[in-house]
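Below is how a single chain appears once it has passed through the pipeline. First comes the sequence as given, then the structure the pipeline wrote out for it. We keep one example in the README because the format questions we get most often are answered faster by looking than by reading.
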Amino acid sequence: MIYKFNLGRSCLKVIIRTYGIKEIFIPYYSCKTIWQAIREEDCKIKFYHIDKDFMPDCEFSKDSYILYINYFGIFTKNCKILSDKYKNLITDNTQAFYAPNFGIATFNSLRKFFPVQNGAYLQIEKEIEMNFEQDNLKLQNVKIQKNYDIFKLNELKLDKEPIKFISAEVEKQMDDIDFENDKKRRTEMFNKYAKEFGRYNLIKLPPLEDSIPYCYPLCTNNKEILQKLSGKTILRLWDDIPKSFPEYEFLYNVASLPFICEW
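Resulting structure:
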């Protein structure tokens, strides 16, 4: 069953309600909007760490509900391994729009990949018996590289949004996307960054194979590269990892190098 909502966090809330989830495992290395969405549903969070291969560093019980993030859109193989092992896996594909669906539910995020203000697709094994109003929110259209202040203002507005179905305007905009060109451009840019920065990157990136990346994640202590990046508006993913966490060694202050796609 495929449903279309306004935000990825809305999809997660619907999953929790549909399955009556009271407790869920999520990675420490995740966006705090995920934490907020889960807590707003009165669902208990249990955190887990990930290792250098971006796999959970622990075992779960067979009945546990587990949220796994397909990081940067390139760890689809991990999703397959976990879905074969755990029956209640939920896959967060917000960084992996083109990835397959794994587990009892999978959701993505349109605005992370395309020039739309919001939107998310939810694929779920169980029928949803809830109704919501259609989204009609209007945000300022802006690219993060050009005006980060407006981008942050838009994010604050989205934080206050309840669960809604996707807007008709966003659906129409998605009909105009050249998906094949987008996939080609993303692959080309990822490979270009990998060639230039791969030997300095502390993140162990798997080969792309059939994966279509969200970004090129760069974590480095090379002073020359850091100096080049210092003057640029580059999204840094979840950069507040405590030094005591094992993830800190290979994930501190990750720079999300953008793909400039032509629409």
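The chain has two domains: 2-175, 179-257.

See the next section for the split statistics.
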